[in-house]
Design brief:
Layout (H helix, E strand, L loop, with lengths): L20 H8 L3 H8 L23 H13 L4 H10 L1 H6 L14 H16 L3 H16 L6 E10 L7 H19 L16 H8 L8 H18 L8 H13 L35 E5 L1 E15 L2 E11 L4 H12 L9 E5 L6 H9 L2 E5 L14 H4 E3 L5 E4 L7 E5 L4 E6 L1 H5 L16 E6 H12 L3 H8 L2 H4 L1 H7 L11 H22 L7
Helix pairs in contact: 3-4, 3-20, 7-20, 8-10, 8-11, 10-11
């Protein structure tokens, strides 16, 4: 049953009230005071009411204590057991969490894991991420407290490695087979095919994968996939509920990804053959212990996920405003589109928000959508074909009006014909040959010299890209893009201080939950480091 934790009423036995003044001063000068004054009272307990029964039962542990404790866990790099010990034995933790008048802290060793399980199950069922909502709400409060305006954001993404082992194809198929056999052994051991009983023998894995030589007629991989098909049919014929288990679903998925077959119900095992490795997709199952993890090569091989962070900043102050967490094959352009849509809820066409990004986040189409939503996309560099050094750009040479018609060239000469093909997104203009012949810039001009008239023809996207390239050379643009450097240090921070590549969970939703608390910990530490935010 959900019970809201009303703010603590100090008892006569409260240890802070009975503390010597010099010790109170030390406590109020520590990190615990801004946490208690700013963060703890802002935690929205009502948000988490949906996790608990509405029927009369034992009250829940205070949600604000749990959330606050999990933030401190990430700030100080603690395990759950170490966090619990700190709450019981460290006065600063009790002070930060408003527990100084409690006879005993209202948390136990299972409090935190049970809470995470509830949050995970709720998101899995509804798609609503309660932790992300709370992180972004508290981060907005911190930004306001630090007086960071909302005029500029910088965006970056970085890989987050899964803690699962990188398996070869043979190891993967073997592991999936072995997992299903173990499940069959629990539910219906009589259904295990005789040819697969040896999986239960000690040392079978090493013997099969590393010691047994390939047969002349087939490779180890083909042999193991045939066993997978045998197991698939055995599971379907079993009277148990094995076909409803995750182990069976992963076997079915693996067979579909590792072979060229779609239907396995009536397929003869002898017809199974491994798919060519070059045809394997990056989103195939990498390890059954982390089914959500995907493969990507970016500077080096990575199995896991990608985190995207949006940092609002002003001078030396910065806060991660919001974030996202996807499979590592999710592109920066998709993150860019998502970020534009999220930021559009709080932007104005009269005062566009500047969104400073890496070139991988930028396309002309995204820039157009951003402008329509009150956001100016500022790329540090542009991908694709570079401008010619011997020719002027289209963006420099020609002027367009609101209807995308060429109105004049760089010398102010007007075309006698101008047209815009909206389907092909192509602009066309024709100029007098006599006028062009007398132009001092004709060698650098993009015009095409033809018999009857000189013609300019170019895609509107290329024209806009040229405009961006020209703007990128201005002092104002360079100053803005230089400010993106701050967000580029975040991957190192999250790896070194928050061990983002060594999270003790697997799967996208669970990993995202842990990542959210790491984001909030990073933001709260900014509050600790800023002097004069609150005074004792």
């Amino acid at each position: 049953m959900f019970s809201k934790n009303e703010f603590q009423q100090l008892s006569f036995n409260d240890f802070v009230l009975n503390m010597p003044e010099y010790l109170k001063k030390i406590l109020e000068d520590s990190w615990a005071y801004p946490f208690q004054q700013v963060i703890f009272p802002a935690i929205d307990e009502d948000r988490f009411e949906v996790l608990y029964s509405d029927k009369p039962s034992r009250p829940n542990s205070p949600v604000n204590v749990i959330i606050g404790a999990l933030i401190l866990k990430e700030i100080f790099g603690l395990s759950d057991a170490e966090l619990l010990a700190s709450i019981y034995f460290d006065d600063r933790f009790q002070y930060a969490l408003c527990l100084t008048s409690e006879e005993k802290p209202p948390v136990s060793i299972n409090t935190f894991s049970n809470f995470r399980k509830r949050v995970y199950a709720y998101e899995k069922e509804t798609g609503r991420d309660l932790i992300k909502e709370e992180v972004e709400s508290l981060s907005e409060l911190i930004a306001q407290t630090l007086e960071i305006d909302n005029e500029k954001v910088r965006v970056d993404s970085f890989m987050v490695a899964s803690s699962c082992k990188n398996l070869s194809r043979i190891e993967l198929v073997y592991t999936v087979n072995a997992n299903l056999i173990k499940k069959l052994n629990q539910l219906d051991n009589a259904a295990i095919p005789e040819s697969c009983l040896s999986y239960l023998d000690k040392g079978h894995k090493n013997e099969t994968i590393y010691k047994t030589r390939d047969k002349e007629s087939e490779s180890k991989l083909d042999f193991l996939l045939k066993q997978s098909q045998i197991l698939y049919r055995a599971a379907l014929e079993s009277k148990s509920k094995i076909s409803k288990t995750e182990e069976f679903e992963l076997l079915k998925r693996m067979l579909g990804e590792q072979t060229d077959h779609d239907d396995f119900d009536d397929l003869d095992p002898d017809d199974i053959e491994a798919k060519d490795a070059k045809k394997l997709d990056s989103d195939i199952l990498q390890n059954p212990s982390d089914p959500d993890a995907t493969y990507r090569f970016k500077y080096s091989a990575n199995i896991g996920y990608t985190a995207n962070v949006v940092e609002v900043f002003d001078g030396d102050n910065s806060i991660i405003k919001n974030y996202d967490f996807k499979e590592n094959i999710y592109s920066d352009q998709k993150f860019s589109a998502d970020t534009i849509n999220n930021l559009a809820k709080e932007t104005s066409l009269d005062n566009p928000l500047k969104m400073i990004v890496d070139g991988a986040y930028f396309t002309i189409d995204l820039a157009k959508k951003a402008v329509a939503k009150g956001i100016e996309l500022i790329p540090g560099q542009l991908t694709g074909r570079k401008q010619s050094k011997s020719k002027m750009s289209y963006g420099t040479t020609f002027n367009l009006n609101e209807d995308n018609l060429v109105t004049s060239c760089i010398n102010g000469e007007e075309p006698f014909y101008s047209n815009y093909d909206s389907e092909k997104d192509v602009c066309t203009a024709k100029f007098s040959k006599k006028v062009c012949a007398a132009c001092s810039l004709k060698k650098e001009c993009r015009i095409q010299f033809q018999k009857k008239a000189n013609t300019a023809r170019f895609e509107k996207d290329r024209y806009l890209r040229d405009i961006y390239r020209n703007r990128m050379k201005t002092d104002e643009f360079i100053e803005l893009t230089n400010q993106r450097a701050g967000v580029e240090g975040l991957p190192s921070v999250f790896r070194r201080f928050y061990n983002v590549d060594s999270m003790p969970v697997r799967g996208k939703l669970r990993s995202k939950l842990y990542f959210g608390f790491k984001v909030l910990a990073s933001n709260v530490k900014k509050l600790f480091k800023s002097p004069g935010i609150v005074t004792g």
